[in-house]
Amino acid sequence: xxxxxxxxxxxxxxxxxxxxxxxxxxxxxxxxxxxxxxxxxxxxxxxxxxxxxxxxxxxxxxxxxxxxxxxxxxxxxxxxxxxxxxxxxxxxxxxxxxxxxxxxxxxxxxxxxxxxxxxxxxxxxxxxxxxxxxxxxxxxxxxxxxxxxxxxxxxxxxxxxxxxxxxxxxxxxxxxxxxxxxxxxxxxxxxxxxxxxxxxxxxxxxxxxxxxxxxxxxxxxxxxxxxxxxxxxxxxxxxxxxxxxxxxxxxxxxxxxxxxxxxxxxxxxxxxxxxxxxxxxxxxxxxxxxxxxxxxxxxxxxxxxxxxxxxxx
Length: 313
Description:
By secondary structure, the protein is an alpha/beta fold. The protein has two domains: 2-167, DHBP synthase (Alpha-Beta Complex); 225-310, Threonylcarbamoyl-AMP synthase, C-terminal domain (Rossmann fold), CATH 3.40.50.11030. The chain is 29% helix and 18% strand. The protein contains ten helices and 14 strands. The strands form two sheets. The chain has a ten-stranded mixed beta sheet with strand order 7-1-2-6-3-5-4-8-9-10, sandwiched between helices. It has a four-stranded parallel beta sheet with strand order 11-14-12-13. A hairpin with a 5-residue loop joins strand 8 and strand 9. Helix 1 (2-9) crosses helix 5 (112-121). The longest helix is centred in the C-terminal third of the chain and has 17 residues, at 267-283.
């Protein structure tokens, strides 16, 4: 913790585990440190970063809280956890992390170590996923190492990430909440709290993204990725298949061409293994990856969002 804090205070980058994916952390108020994040990832300069804070009481330090939002009640419901909120930016200290936008994305992560580092250093941390831009997000320290070896001074190994998908991003700056990226908190839980919600997962090529995961091809392996329902799958010798246990039981494809990624009865198991499964498939000697299409209820919406973006050319 001391080493991570010292490096962050010195303007360096540190890869830290969270409950979602590993984050590439830097002092959110240090423009030079933020610049290093964009350089290490090869990230487009108009793609904003999420700012992590250790406690909801810090929200008003960086953002303007609208009258309709009871931040303490919101925090007691969703934080710490995989939910990021967008609010009007309060000052210029986060301009670099916000890619020049007028809103800031804030989250309290459900990771004791990450929060302890923030408390120890006294810093709010900008932390996108600790991978090369566009590639599969890292859910283990080894995944980070494969993308960031030689680019950053420290990777903290916190084991496998529990959620395995990035946080849900929701704009709560107006009365009607807008989901900009589905993630670890499902749409059903958000509707229970916010009521009517607008889904705004896409942004046109001519506009800057409001949130990570909106505009660019993301989460993608180097091999072509196709999404297909299990009932329409046909075995091909040049293909590796990502399947649920139920689909494999039905299809009986050769085991050396199948990566099991959880069960339909527990889509959270699929979410937590998705990026690891894609990375494994990408390392195998096949010409393409075919992934089973999944229901979009609960966290299934976020899973299919990631697969859809990964499969875009």
